[in-house]
Every structure is written in C-alpha cells, then in structure tokens.
Amino acid sequence: MIMRFKNGSLDLARPRLMAVLNVTPDSFSDGGRYASVDAAVEEARVFAREGADIIDIGAESTRPGHTPLSVDEELGRLLPVLDRVVADGLLPVSVDTYKARTAAAALERGAVIINDIWGLRFDPDMARVVAEHEAGLVIMHNRETRDEQIDIVADMEAFFGRALERAAAAGVSSDHMCLDPGIGFGKTVRQNLLALKATAMLVTRFGLPVLVGASRKSFINAIHESHVSQRLGGTLAAHLFAVREGARLLRVHDVASHVQALGVEDAIKRAN
Predict the structure, then answer these.
(1) Cβ atoms within 10 Å, residue 232
(2) What CATH number should be reported for the domain whose range is 15-267?
(3) Catalytic machinery residues
(4) Distance between CA 12 and CA 268 in Å, rounded?
(5) Which helix (H) or strand (E) segment is 128 a member of?
(6) pTM of the model
(7) Helices 152-170 & 199-206, crossing angle to 10 degrees?
(8) Mean pLDDT, to the nearest integer, of 144-151?
(9) In whole angstroms, what is the distance from residue 7 CA to residue 23 CA?
(10) pLDDT tens, residue by residue, 182-220
(11) Is 211 helix (H, G, I), strand (E, B) or coil?
C-alpha cells in the first residue's frame, strides 16, 4: 500500500510515523512549547533524527473548547515555521487545517499533505484545493457533539462514504488519501475504544490506509488516571493494537518511543 502526493510517496509496507508539531499556545498536550519559530524548527529536526516519516504542523488548537482562528491568524503562526521546515527538506510536511485558504497557502509553500480534522465537511472548497495541488489527504471522522446513543462505527462508515464521494467528485485520487477514525473527537470514552476496534473494518471496507492518532488522548485518563504527560504507556498500547489491526500511519508526539516499540514488535514477529 502506498500513499502518494505531488512529487513523492510513502511506502506503507510498514507502519509510518506522523510527528505532531503544534505551533500553538493552547494545544492540549504541549501548548506553547514550540510557539517560537526556532523552537518549532529544532523540534522538527529532532523528530527527523528520531525516525519520523512525516512532520504534521498545526497552528490552531483543536482540543475541546478551543477558540477558532481566522485564516490570517492561522497563517501568521504557520507560515514562518512551515517555510523553514520545508527548506530543511528532511521530511514530507503535512499541515493540520480544515480551512481551504490555509491549505492552499501551505501547499503553495511546499507542504504535500493536508490533515483535515473535519473530513472535507467544514470547507466545501477543500477537496478542490487538495486535488489541484495533487496533495495527500487525511480524512478524519469528527462530530460536533458527543451522542452516546449512536452507533459510532456506523456513523464513521457513513461519514467516510460521503467524504470520499466529495473527494472523488473534486478529482482527488484514491491513492492520495487515508482515513482517520478521529480518536478524541466528538466521541465518548466507549466510542473511542470502539473506533479503535474498527480499524480492521475500515481497512477492509474502504481499501485505504488508516491513520490512528491516540497520542496522549483523554480516553487514556478515563481508563487509567494520568496527567497528559504520563500517557505514553496508554498511547503505545492503543497504537500497537491499531497496527495489529491494519493501521499504517500513527500520529504521535513521542517519536523515539514509537520507533522502539514498533521495532521490538517487528523483531518478535520475525523471530524463528
């Protein structure tokens, strides 16, 4: 399985790591830590040395209760970091945004993947922008509110079906897309667990790579009380489960630990 983007591709024969680089003052996990351009660029270099495969830059926090930014505010935070990370040329760069104008500006400056947390629902122009730039696209499942009564897996299937129709109508190639069940977005703790368990179903149902981003999410705290900085164990458990179920991409904060965990798991599988 391969995920393609303009002038490049990512071989997904083995799981790949998308490193989270939040250039926001209010991220749930590391808000403010990389708010300066120099700090963010250095962290991207660390991620590359540790074994990341993609750098995912986000300039607007999307945690519950976040304050939305205007496009100009988002670009003001994003572009100075993006320009320097792209200039380094160490890894493909993804941009975490749900706004088409932001996506277009980022793709024009060298980003090659758009990570849309609203799965093409928020901005009707997003699919066209992705198609015109031949970008990769992460389509994430999301809900505006939690509803413990719904069948979350059925909701995901319907959501992805509609999103893929929009993408196809705009001319986005299927081999440029992957699906993200959206752990922590509009779901109860139980629904997050069911979404993780649905990884294999999503791979089979849609025939596309699945990206899972459970890193440091609050559902881990609901299972085992822990500060956000103490959730590496739960993160690794969720991500290794997802990989065994067929996930090919993991969105992570802790790159080195994931490289080690995936390496050990692979060595065990290969032992004879």
Answers:
(1) 18
(2) 3.20.20.20
(3) 217, 251
(4) 20
(5) helix 126-132
(6) 0.92
(7) 40
(8) 94
(9) 26
(10) 999 999 999 999 999 999 999 999 999 999 999 999 999
(11) strand
